[in-house]
Amino acid sequence: MRREWWHDKVAYQIYPKSFRDTNGDGIGDLPGIIEKLDYLKDLGVDIVWISPIFCSPMVDNGYDISDYYDIDPMFGTMEDMDQLIEEGKKRGISILLDLVVNHCSSEHEFFKKAMEDPDGPYGQYFYIRDGKDGLPPNNWRSYFGPSAWTKIPGYENKFYLHSYAAEQPDLNWENPEVREKIYEMVCWWMEKGLGGFRIDAIMDIKKDLTWQDLPVDGPDGMGAIYKINQKVKGIDAFLLELRRRCFTPYDGFGIGEALKINEETLKKSIGDGGYFSSIFAFEPCHVYRKGDDFTTYDFPIDFHEWREKTFQNHELIGDIGFEANLIGNHDQPRGASLFIPKKDYGFNSVSALATIIFCQRGLPFIYQGEEIGMTNREGWKKEEYADSATLGKFEYFEQWGYDIEKIEKVIATHSRDNGRTPMQWDDSEHGGFTIGKPWLVVNENYKEINVAAQEREYGSILNFYKRLIAFRKSEEYKEILTYGSISQIYGQYDYIFAYRRALGNQCLDLICNFCGEEQVVELQEEYDNVIFVNQEQTTMIGNRIVLKPYEVVVFEKLNTV
To answer: Which of 204, 257, 344, 509 is catalytic?
Structure first.
């Protein structure tokens, strides 16, 4: 594996609507991100990924782009964007933007022209098909619930495809003119000095051009559209062309949102000849998802499945490349709530989870607020949600007669809006996010969980994150924590998450008791040093270590063969 500039870095995701508002309109903005660059630098961040800030009607919170060459006024101006890139460079921080090119907005000029003349050249920029006697061409269900087809106004039997909301028509990647327009746009941004892009929904760009029905998987008689990318071939050419044209010439970093990929696709996705620089390690953190019906999802996550999938993933990847390791993002519930039982939440459990993630092989990603232990919000009311996927779930389950009281409880724990509540900067009104009315309700626990309080407290989660990142980047351990192999150890113990990092004659063993009860582990090795802990006074009795609830210890063993 060729060494890359980003291998030893730490990344941070910003959801801009919820990060920091400087003008009082209740919506986070680019000046707010610029204001907090020193905070990110002090934390130890090298790469910042910003969710969509392009012009958008905001049907899907910016993932419906109407103009790829301009900044939405709610976030600021292109001058603000140029300043952000420049100020980031001064601090050694590379800026990534979200590249959403599976679809655009229905307000994009291309789609408007296509609707004026579906049989004309711009109609070929999208997937427009004849229906079946006025009904959709097939039974594909969009990610957001209803049919993936919407009838074109003024036509009795013409429909356009949208994998997500009806306002997000899918772009026709089979059309070389479309691909060329996309590549021109990406290169325009790279010329501005971006470090690269996070590439949204990219595994959806290849369609089943036979347009056959999918197996029915719900009471609506439809099949989930994501299953298409598991059966179609030919996406390789698109993705390799994208990397060759847009990323390789700039030494740019491209990270793909690649869901539900198999072993063959994984090995094509990353590494020296892969589609992307990296992809997110979704498989371990998505084990709570049981099929398509999220009323059956686990909450919190099943420890044993998470542990098993983590090491399966590392074994599968080997040394061909790096995945990006994460706890959560804008599309999931808060990681502190998903991984940790409510009764166990606190410094010990949050710091243990962070250490497990950061000491693995791969690029660690922090989602905004994780560094202070932000949690799911409690007490959601239906009218408070802003997420289109969440509202689509309400509509779907109400339509098919599910127990609404049960559905409300499930949605409250799994809604994406949990991860999108505003950043909690201090204990002033609205958590210091805005002086106006926030676009989404602030989590009421902001008075206890906020940046200002944790900056003052030496033993806070925030200051632990700073120590953890400094440990990962230290001269002594950066090489092994970046490039060392990883393998599971002590897997015979329940609720023990443990692994070995090895490189040359150096070996680090991480052992974590990830539960609320004390555990004793009989050590199979003699170690030279304890080099990192999240709690004080590690207890050793002979060759046994007595681990307190959520205690994590990293041992060092030198001169190994």
So the answer is: 257
What's the pTM? 0.95
Look up residue 22 and give its DSSP letter: S
- Is the CB of residue 12 less than 8 Å from the CB of residue 368? yes
Preceding amide of 300 cis, omega within 30 = yes
Walking along the chain (561 residues) 10 residues at a time, the average pLDDT comes out as 95 98 98 98 98 95 96 98 98 97 98 98 98 97 93 97 97 98 98 97 96 94 91 93 97 90 82 94 86 72 95 92 96 96 98 98 98 97 91 84 85 94 98 98 98 98 98 98 98 98 96 98 94 92 95 90 56
Residue written as token pair 């210091």: 432
Q: 548: which DSSP letter?
A: P
Instruction: Return the CA Rg of the chain.
Output: 24
Q: What is the per-residue pLDDT across 412-457, written as a single tens digit (0 to 9) for each?
A: 999 999 999 999 999 999 999 999 999 999 999 999 999 999 999 9
H helices of 243-370, where? 263-269, 282-285, 303-317, 335-339, 347-358
pLDDT digits (tens, 9 = 90+) for 130-184: 999 999 999 999 998 889 999 999 999 999 999 999 999 999 999 999 999 999 9
Token pair in block for residue 302: 């099943």
| 8-state DSSP, 246 | I
Amino acid of residue 231: K
CB-count exposure of residue 425 (10 Å: 0-12, 13-18, 19+): buried
In the chain, the N- to C-terminal Cα span, in Å, equals 23
Enumerate residues 6+ apart whose C-beta is below 8 A from 457: 463
**Would you say 80 and 141 are in contact if contact means Cβ atoms under 8 Å apart?**
no
The reply to whether 257 belongs to the active site is yes
The residue from 167, 200, 323, 387 that is catalytic is: 200
Tell me: the pLDDT tens digits for 36-72?
A: 999 999 999 999 999 999 999 999 889 999 999 999 9
- Which structure tokens are listed for 78? 């292109």
Structure tokens at 115: 């609707």
Dist. CA 481–CA 488, nearest whole Å:
15
Give the Å distances, CA to CA, from 353 to 131, 344, 350, 512. 50, 12, 5, 9
How many Å apart are CA 441 and CA 412, to the nearest integer? 13
Q: Is 479 among the catalytic positions?
A: no
